[in-house]
Amino acid sequence: MSNQNEFFVIKAKENGVNVIGLTRGSDTRFHHSEKLDKGEVMIAQFTEHTSAVKIRGKALIQTSHGTMDTED
Ligand code: TRP
Fold first, then answer.
1. Which of 10, 25, 39, 70 is the most buried (most CB within 10 A)?
2. What does the pLDDT read at residue 47?
3. If you measure from the C-alpha of residue 13 to the centroid of ligand 1, how many angstroms do you get, rounded to a whole number?
């Protein structure tokens, strides 16, 4: 899939931000949870295995659709 080489960036604005990967396909479930502390950055892609990402906690998120903050 062409969009699978795009990266997105998540920067934690507090300790304990969770980046949760959800599976691609008919069975949508969590398959990975990454914990970021304040200032930590994760750079990731959508893949064959990951079609959605859920972010819990205060973070700055940068995608090809723009930059957004999770609410406090
Ligand atoms: N093994 C996962 C995958 O290839 C790693 C991964 C990629 C991931 N993007 C992610 C995990 C986003 C969490 C969130 O799909």
1. 10
2. 95
3. 21
Which residue's entry shows tokens 């691609």? 24
Report all structural domains of the chain as residue ranges with CATH numbers, in order of start. Answer: 3-69 (2.60.40.50)
Q: Whose CA is nearest to atom 13 of ligand 1?
A: 21
Atom of ligand 1 nearest to the CA of 47: 15
11-68 confidence digits (pLDDT tens): 999 999 999 999 999 999 999 999 999 999 999 999 999 999 999 999 999 999 999 9
